[in-house]
Amino acid sequence: xxxxxxxxxxxxxxxxxxxxxxxxxxxxxxxxxxxxxxxxxxxxxxxxxxxxxxxxxxxxxxxxxxxxxxxxxxxxxxxxxxxxxxxxxxxxxxxxxxxxxxxxxxxxxxxxxxxxxxxxxxxxxxxxxxxxxxxxxxxxxxxxxxxxxxxxxxxxxxxxxxxxxxxxxxxxxxxxxxxxxxxxxxxxxxxxxxxxxxxxxxxxxxxxxxxxxxxxxxxxxxxxxx
Length: 226
Prior knowledge:
two-stranded parallel ribbon, 15% strand, DJ-1/PfpI, Class_I_gatase-like, glyoxalase III activity
């Protein structure tokens, strides 16, 4: 049985707005069930361990999908989610791939988290896929190749667009824009129309543009694991 590590954000404050953030339910639930239903064993981790914060907005009626509805009725998965393991205890040798769901929280904590950075580099250097969707490609802000260049340098990537960030009116709230960061790190950034499903694979890196891209990213990851 293949094993995939999911890494979730613990960050819950949306800058200085007084509003809450966290991870986006669809971006966790859609890949989780797609992989689980195919017999993949999934372990959940986060920087601090325990219950990661759910972005309250992702619970709103407009953002419900079959996967989020399933999650909301799934007490077993909710229980597993409430007990994520601490990132510092994770060893890439125990897994075949790593997946990062998005949500605005990622741009604050996982983008800068030293355990996460080291883990991604370790997966990559051991020829294991690293997948991330929406805001989660923020995890590549500080990751490096063995030669010191950015991990995304010269790689085809995507992630939450400047236009999408503008549409949710958080351009001036987030510490950096995912699209701009990927470009400045030398990534070959492409995108589709705002909110369209879009996933890109380049070698071991698999990235998705927005929440609607969660399942396409998981499908690419599943193919990679076969």
